[in-house]
Amino acid sequence: MHQENLSMKMSKQFPLNALRVFEAAARLGSFTKAGDELGMTQTAVSYQIRLIEENIGEPLFLRRPRQIALTEVGQHLAPKVTEAFEMLHDAVASARGNAEAALLINSTATFASQWLAREIGTFQLEHPNIAVRLVANDAIIDFNKEAVDVAIRSGMGDWPGLASHRLMRVEFTPMLSPALAETVGGVRTPRDLLKLRIIDPRDPWWSLWFRAAGVDDPDLDGRPGSRLGAQAFEARAAVAGQGVAILMPEFYSDDVALGRLYQPFELRCSDGHDYWLVYPHARRNAPKIRAFRDWILGKLDPDTHRDAH
Q1: Are residues 177 and 217 in the same domain?
Q2: Do 59 and 22 belong to one domain?
Q3: Are the beta carbons of 153 and 111 closer than 8 angstroms?
Q4: List of residues 6+ apart from 18 with CB closer than 8 A
Q5: Locate the HTH lysR-type domain: which residues (predicted)?
Q6: Which of 277, 274, 303 is closest to 163 using CA atoms?
Q7: In angstroms, rounded to a whole number, what is the distance separating the alpha carbons of residues 158 and 271?
Q8: pLDDT digits (tens, 9 = 90+) for 22-49
Q9: What is the pLDDT of residues 217-228, one digit of tens each?
C-alpha cells in the first residue's frame, strides 16, 4: 500500500504523459497537430497541457485564435523536455540493441561439450553481431527466473509454455577402448562386457540395454558404483581404458576414427528421452532466437527445419 501511495505521489509530481503532450505541441506549434501525432483528441491535448501548467504554476502557451505560442517559461522548458525524451528514446533503443546483441544458451553438459562447443563457431560466423554465451549444466532452468534465451534439454519435449524442437534422437550402446577389450580376449557376446569394469552401473541405460541384448541377470547393483555426472566424462574414462561406458555413438565418431573407442554391438536402445531446443513460446519471434533456431535445426534436423514454427 505504501508503495502504491508513493507511486501515485510520484506520478502527480512528475506528469510524464503531460510532458509528452507538451513536447509535441511545442515542437509542432499546434494542439491539433500534437493530437494527430499522439492519437489524441484536441480536447485531451488541452487537458494534458492544463495539467502540466497547474503542476508548474505558470502558463506555458499563449492561446490566440487559430494559433498558440510558447510563453517565456514554455520557451525555457521545451528544449529541455525534447532533449530528455531523446535521451529516454536512446536508452530504450540501446537496451533493446544490447538485448538483441547477446544470446544466452543453457545446455546439458554432454551436448555442450560433444556437439555445440565444436559447431557454435559457424553460427557466430553467420551472425557476427550476436555474442554467444554458453552455460553448461544439467539442472532444468526456469526461464522466468534466469536470464536465458534458449536451452537444450533432454526429455520428452512436453514442457508447458515452451516451444520445443527435437534436435537429436538419443540412442545408446556400450563403447570401450579396443585395448581394454583385448585384456579379456575380445568382446564377442554382450555377456563378455561383464568381465570388465562397468562405468556407472547404476545408470538406467545399462539395464535397458542388457535386457534388450538378452542378458537378464547382469547383477549391476552388486558392482562398485561410480557416478561421473556426465556422459562426456564417462567417455573420457572409457578412452583411458578404465572400463566400458554406455554412450551415444554420434558424439564419439572422432574417438572411433582414431581407434580410441569402438562399439562392439550394433544394438542401440532408447529410453524415450531426446535432445530438444526449447525457449518461451512468447519469445518465438525474437530475431536472435529465430536465428539460432534456424541455424541449429538446419544443422541437425533439416526436415523439422522446414516446418519450424
Answers
A1: yes
A2: yes
A3: no
A4: 48, 49, 51, 52, 55
A5: 14-71
A6: 277
A7: 15
A8: 999 999 988 999 999 999 998 999 999 9
A9: 888 877 776 666
